[in-house]
Amino acid sequence: MYIKEIEEKVLKLFSQYPGAQLKIKEISSILSIKKFDFTNLNDTIRKLIKDNLLIKEGQYVTSNKSSQNNESNKDSKKASNKSVSNKNSKRDYSPNSTNGNVKLIEATFDATSLAKGYSFGFAITEENDYFVSSEDLLNAYHGDKIAIEPYKQKNGKFYGVVRNVLERANHKMVGNATKYGSSYIFVCDNHKIHTSIIVTSPDKDIDNMKVEIEILNWGDKKRGTLPAGKVLSILGEAHDPEIEVLGVIKQFNLPLDFPENVIDEASMLSENISDREIERRSDFRDIVTLTIDPISAKDYDDAISLVKEDHGYSLYVHIADVGHFVKPGTELFNEAASRGNSFYFPKRVIPMLPEQISNKLCSLRPDEDKLTLSVVTKLNHKYDIIEQYAVESIINSDARLNYEEVDKFFETNELDQSDEVKELLTESLKISKRFSEKLKKNGYINFRLPDVEYIYDEEGHLVSIIESEETASHKLVENFMLLANEYVATYLKEKTKTTIYRVHELPDKEKIENVAKLLSFYGHKMKFDGTLNHSIQEVLKSFEGTFEEKVFNKMILRSMKKAQYTTKHNLHFGLSIQNYTHFTSPIRRLSDLVIHLQLKSLLGKDGFTFKAKSLEELAENATQQEVLSDEAYRAILKKMVEYFMKDRIGKEYEALITGMNNSNMFVTLLKYPITGVVKLSSIPGDYFVVDEEKMMITGKKKKKQFKLAQKIDIRVSDVTDDIYFDIIL
Fold it and tell me: Is residue 714 part of a domain?
């Protein structure tokens, strides 16, 4: 039976994806048509074909653009003559060329939509995104460099036909192997690899194993053959947490071990500090010094001291002198430059430097003499800065503290430490609060986004996810590190021709204006009568403590540019600091190590002067590796969260609406900071449309409305390429 509501859904689907060629079963899957409605879908599509709104091409259904655009048959024939072939003649494309000679253009293939069950992908160029139907993608896979024949549709949108795969993004892949009859099928951990892969003649039984394969051939779509690959290594049983982490490490081609020459070089470094080295440094071993780190930390590369003086206070930020041991031209430096930073995973860390350095020589453990670089800040009694300077130094830490016990001390005054340590913490807290006030006054934007903590059992399985607010101890350490970073950046800017800055550029005006416009629909006005920093501060304050804070804070943050390392001087917008760099973590960040070496070259004879070109390359690599580290971390967390939620299919939760597009509503659970998808087509009782400008969803018949930050009840329905929920009305 023909159903008007189904007709609207089908026509909307083809208007969103013009040129798509879909089987009726694919349409049913995309629109989440229930089994009992499949016959009605079939009858409705037949009527649409009869009414010339859709066209049947073999097993596929596609839109009739000439009808949709009210083109005459004559115009339609004209358009078809311009098409690339008879196969494409009904698509009404015109070559993207003024003289009729179609030129191939280079693009990157994005298979995200294919991985979600749709029958199309996109060819991404700097100028445009080209729609590519599944029948026109040859054997391109996600991330491949491709050559496409571009077309422009009557409605101004772009279509591409893949003519050649220029460069493969992946020759090796990691995923799960499953026995299928007498063969093995490989499914890549990267869901965007949209087909299975045949495993050729493995030496061992690899059923339900995590394996790394090398692609031997990429298949032939015309002949219906899948790609094939051979097993390079068997990592272990699929779904084992340690094996899953190992799989991500392999997938991102991260370094598992240090080369022997790097280990040998590190082992030759001595822990002994010569008298001559001590004599040339500022000796701070007699002042009370302590470290504050996470309870699970193994390396402690920063420490603080605070001394009462006649003028007020002297605040010391001591950072492990990694540059004393790791110098340019050595195997250690080359390896650090290659890695760019340490990589952090559940229960596992891939360090930038070997343990001999990170956990021993440069770890500021209590009761051990350690070489450091210290930034000394002299403050008056009102905590205003009088003077700052940096020195090569030597310290001996009195105490190793963790955040939890410091926060407990701030609340209860209980701490199993000396009176000197307690006094240091008490006075440091007062200074930290004063610094926070100054930072806010200067325009520092505090998004109040809670940290997410992932709780694992002894075997490494994710058992819970919690949010933790920023505490006084965290803020104290952050404020003191900011102070040191800002001073070092200012000093190097004055004393060197080129250095590495940590830059956070101003947001794009259009993006901020779009966010401001959206917020106005929800009753929050962003006033632009002062600096942009203070405008954002004020609007953040307007929804502080509400559900809207959980949604709009992230939305404003996403409208901003990402921070990066660069030799081009610019401000750090989010911190509202003109000169900023990273100096305080040389054990785990390449940028900080380079800054240390530059600073040491100005303070003594133990540093290094870098050429401008080298600094540019190091800054670029540091940024790239930071992005890689974030991607790898997100990949393993996605796996852990999906396994976590698979055990909760059918369970009901409260959630907040955090986003939406034409097809989906995105929601975040209140119990766990987990985000998933509610397909609009799965919401019963109505046909829902989205006002993307106002970010509101309205039922066409009953006018039921959903909007951002609205609390709803949901049920976990499926966990595949994403976490899917059904809404409970």
Answer: yes
